[in-house]
Amino acid sequence: MTTTSDDPSASDRVGRRLLPTSILLAEIAEMDAEYQRQHFVTLTDLCEGRPERLDELRALIRTGAIPQPAYADEQGNELVRPDYLALWVGGQGGGCEHRGGGQDVCGDDRPVASVR
Question: Model pTM greater than 0.70?
Answer without folding.
Answer: no
